[in-house]
Amino acid sequence: MRNLLDIMDLSTDELDSLIKTALDIKDHPEKYADACKRKKLATLFFEPSTRTRLSFEAAMYELGGNVIGFSESSSSSAAKGESVADTVKVVSNYADIIAMRHPKDGAALVAVRNANVPVINAGDGGHHHPTQTLADLLTIYREKGGFRGLTIGLCGDLKYGRTVHSLVYAMSRYEGVNFVFISPEELRFPRYIIDDVLEKNGIPYLETSDLEEAIPKLDILYMTRIQRERFLDLNEYERLKDSYILTPEKLISAKKDMAILHPLPRVNEISVALDKDPRAKYFEQTLNGKYMRMALILKLLGLDGKPSDETEDTVRDVIYDRFRCPNHRCITTTEQELRQEFYSVDEEQGVYRCVYCDTEIRK
Amino acid sequence: MRNLLDIMDLSTDELDSLIKTALDIKDHPEKYADACKRKKLATLFFEPSTRTRLSFEAAMYELGGNVIGFSESSSSSAAKGESVADTVKVVSNYADIIAMRHPKDGAALVAVRNANVPVINAGDGGHHHPTQTLADLLTIYREKGGFRGLTIGLCGDLKYGRTVHSLVYAMSRYEGVNFVFISPEELRFPRYIIDDVLEKNGIPYLETSDLEEAIPKLDILYMTRIQRERFLDLNEYERLKDSYILTPEKLISAKKDMAILHPLPRVNEISVALDKDPRAKYFEQTLNGKYMRMALILKLLGLDGKPSDETEDTVRDVIYDRFRCPNHRCITTTEQELRQEFYSVDEEQGVYRCVYCDTEIRK
Amino acid sequence: MRNLLDIMDLSTDELDSLIKTALDIKDHPEKYADACKRKKLATLFFEPSTRTRLSFEAAMYELGGNVIGFSESSSSSAAKGESVADTVKVVSNYADIIAMRHPKDGAALVAVRNANVPVINAGDGGHHHPTQTLADLLTIYREKGGFRGLTIGLCGDLKYGRTVHSLVYAMSRYEGVNFVFISPEELRFPRYIIDDVLEKNGIPYLETSDLEEAIPKLDILYMTRIQRERFLDLNEYERLKDSYILTPEKLISAKKDMAILHPLPRVNEISVALDKDPRAKYFEQTLNGKYMRMALILKLLGLDGKPSDETEDTVRDVIYDRFRCPNHRCITTTEQELRQEFYSVDEEQGVYRCVYCDTEIRK
Question: CA–CA separation, A126 vs A106, rounded Å?
């Protein structure tokens, strides 16, 4: 049995195989229409996320299965103080596979460790949201015929945007890819990912605050929202915000086949006037997300005709209860009787990370 | 592809055909049990309306289809500020047909203009709610064997009750129909509908504030609720309210086969003691609503065996961005990048109406 | 047509038959996979109870049926003031069977009296919750091979815990059963049930406040939560609470095959460390609940292959509108036009009970 916590849990081969299945589903939906007959997906959404939830539900119905679940925690037993662990243990008796969304970082790992059925992380706080990345990857694949050699621009809030981080991790595994990070100073792409992934592997990248200047080079432009709340200085926000709104004018110098992506919902960072531009792929992206979720459900239920993966979870030396996770959004702050658990990143320097939320501490 | 925004979008022939299909569904449900196999209905309820939602869901399941959706906007992306346009564009990738309820007048038109699948207006603010009128019409048809020559009493809040307005529009197309409007002075049936529809076509009507006096003439008595909030003078409310509560005593002089309708939910405007009276048809009305929604879904999905309608939307000369809609419940007040759009009613007099919510302005 | 309001509505034979069906479903799920094809269950949850709702929904899907409903009353017409009676009358037009949860005592009886389809009480306030008891009984049956001669310990809040009360009523019908009531003084098992059920039938029982002392005797240990709010004296709560938390240490003297049950959700009254103990059966209990709900749905829809029960409701002499129910959680306090209804328990002594919530009054 396998789960999906983080996009990096999937090998490149597994990703390729998911994409292949998704494309086959798109072309031959009738072949899959009864694939999950008599199976049930539980959508456990401890916080609302309509688009993601509806995408999973549509995916399961198109595979011939059924869906149970809840769409926010006020209507769940969580309001009575039930733990994530108990919830998934109970729901394992009601469903064959679980898609869980939770506001706390690391909640998905608690689910995986306690469920008796496969678990898909449908977003755990600001931590991971791998099925969004699957949607992004299929969109890029379909638009460009593959991943090699692409120049990928990422624009907006690159500091906090988890979808942007995951996309960089995932795309870095393909040959010849390079990145252009477009953001205000305050919201630059995190240095530790640049160090860990790009510098280490010699992957070219560029940082700029100028969207218009960057556009002509790009094969892909991945837009994200800049939230007012992220700025200490609101004057700075006012000064900057318009320069990160994509308009028809800004696209004049773009390649004719550049694809525009966005994880949605958008507020105003892409002008509605662009929706009819053939380069706008953000609605298509949601369709691709449905296909990838279908492929993923098939894979995790062992219904994709592939031998089941026997890969083990990464075995890491873990230190219990010596440190306390400083991230107040970590699931360890609320889940009952959950031990503090850290793994060593650099023992000499005393650098450790929380097993649940990956928050780094230095001792 | 067709949508249903307003009951008047349907021609008399189309209405007759829906009624015929609904009656066939009632008599031969097994013929339709797989009609929508592998199809999905999305119920997008931006405000709660349990009865309408459950009716749509039951309808879709009885046609062999599936349902996805949400039941209030706190669990939808709308809470994050997403536009109606974006929501329906995304959901078009997940479902084959949409039933949408929204608190803003005119929201349904935004949905129709952006969806790639048929849209059914399940209520847009105080504007339209055509599937309620379909339920009303089938109930009248089944009780009376047709529409001709009926005397229809409408009682209660005739000023604000959108179901009452729609019913008058719809019934006015049938020969020999006449209306009795029964309401307090404050809540009289709108003059503009009387002028537009009844006076213009020479359809007889009567206005009265006396329910008991009116009852003996009626073939149909359509009750609605009088809301306390509608009265400026609460003494007036207290004085009047009991006279618009239907009780067994008030029915003594009614015809033996008069049918009592109500859009539900009722609070106390029809005494529970009447529920067992054979003339009480308001629960049957909800069953009829389900059959009509089934017939409508079949029609809009092109599954009713009829050639698809090629009728075009009314083409109207539209004036963009010159006026601003004064209705603060209009969708133009909240939807992003939506242009103000008015059509001319009387150019000489300078009378225009908002394309979305039909609010009239004079310039 | 039959309903399930209270576990005591079921005869011992009917219980045995439900258990037999549930075991057959467990062993041969495929036999039942289409049993409810084209049937719809309505889950009307006027207050949230995720586990119970998901269990019902999973049950219906595993029988091949469909589900409509709502998960809390803010998204239902109840928010507009609709009565339980009207809601179930309408929903009877949309579904073949209803499972209803409601915060008011006695709401389930209102539903039964107004629905045109079978109604299952999925919890009415603090009154009854019979499907929880069905889950408990199947768990005991599967663990012990039957009910005779068992020593059943009940621990925690025995005063307010409705599941504990129902279990005592239900188990008292089996030969040789005896009970150990383990609770703080404030939360002792109600005297009137001891008198009515145990003393009257000569069933042995023991009352103690010492969990550790009681454990060695027990075949079943049924844990419940002690809520802080139940204590007038919070010092008393602090002093006591740990003695009613089940830990591995407290189990040292327990029988090797004692089964631990809990209605869930737990907060901390059973240590997570016990979850892996083979005696911990509280998660299995939720699985058993699903099987029993499947058996119950089949029975109430007449699909269990048994002749339908023709037993009448208990006919009781009822006194209308003479007394007023003093229980402010009784459905008679909110439901429109509902008459006060009492039955006599002891006419000489002037003891009566409310037909809806069974609250006792003395006149």
Answer: 9
Q: Which of A244, A347, A221, A293 is nearest to A56 (CA)?
A: A293
In a domain, B310, yes or no: no
Where does residue C123 fall: left (phi above 0), alpha (psi -120 to 50 degrees), or beta otherwise? left
Q: What is the predicted pLDDT for the residue at B236?
A: 82
Subunits close to C (at least 3 CB pairs below 8 A): A, B
Tokens of A32: 């899959």
CATH for B327:
2.30.30.20
DSSP tag of A198 = I
Exposed e or buried b for every residue in B46-81, given b needs 16+ CB within 10 A?
bebbbbbbbbbbbbbbbbbbbbbbbbbbbbbbbeee
Q: Say yes or no: B197 and B105 in one domain.
A: no
Q: Is the domain of A33 the same as that of A93? A: yes
- Lookup result for tokens 């008198």: C195
Q: What is the mean pLDDT of chain A?
A: 93
Strands C178-182 and C151-155: parallel
Contacts of C273 in chain A (CB under 8 A): 337
Does residue C1 lie within any of the structural domains? no
Query: pLDDT digit string (tens) for B272-323?
Result: 999 999 999 999 999 999 999 999 999 999 998 887 665 555 667 899 999 9
Question: Where in chain C does DSSP place strands (E)?
Answer: 40-45, 66-70, 97-102, 119-124, 151-155, 178-182, 205-208, 220-223, 259-261, 318-320, 341-346, 351-354, 360-362
- Taking the Cβ of residue A271 and every Cβ of chain B, the question of whether any pair is shorter than 8 Å is answered with yes
**Among residues B53, B59, B95, B122, which one has the least CA distance to residue B292?**
B59
What is the domain range of residue C326?
Answer: 318-362
pLDDT for position A314 = 61
Tens digits of residue pLDDT in C182-225: 999 989 999 999 999 999 999 999 999 999 999 999 999 999 98
Specify the number of domains making up chain B: 3
- Examine the domain organization and report whether A323 and A236 are in the same domain: no
**Is C161 found in the same domain as C265?**
yes
Residue C361 CA: distances (Å) to CA of A84, A348, C325: 43, 75, 8
ipTM of the complex: 0.94
Closest CA to A96 of A133, A132, A48, A64: A64
Which one of B58, B72, B283 has the shortest CB-CB distance to C75? B72
CATH number for position B248: 3.40.50.1370
Q: Is residue B265 part of a domain?
A: yes
Element (H, E) at B220: strand B220-223
Cα separation, B289 vs B275, whole angstroms: 18
Note whether B121 and B157 are same-domain residues: no
Question: Which residue from B minimizes the CA distance to C42?
Answer: B54
Kindly state whether A339 is in contact with chain C, defined as any CB-CB distance less than 8 angstroms: no
Mutate to test the interface with C, among A61, A80, A114, A117 (most CBs of C within 10 A): A80
Amino acid at B303: L
- Give residue A250's pLDDT: 94
The amino acid at C314: T
Segment B208-235 shows an average pLDDT of: 90
The pLDDT value given to residue A311: 57
| Edge-first strand listing for the sheet containing B351-354 | B318-320, B341-346, B351-354, B360-362
Partner-chain contact B50 C68, CB within 8 Å: no
Handedness of CA B21, B22, B28, B29 (dihedral sign): positive
A81: left (phi over 0), alpha (psi -120 to 50) or beta: left
- In 3-state terms, what secondary structure has residue B289? helix
| In a domain? residue B307 | no
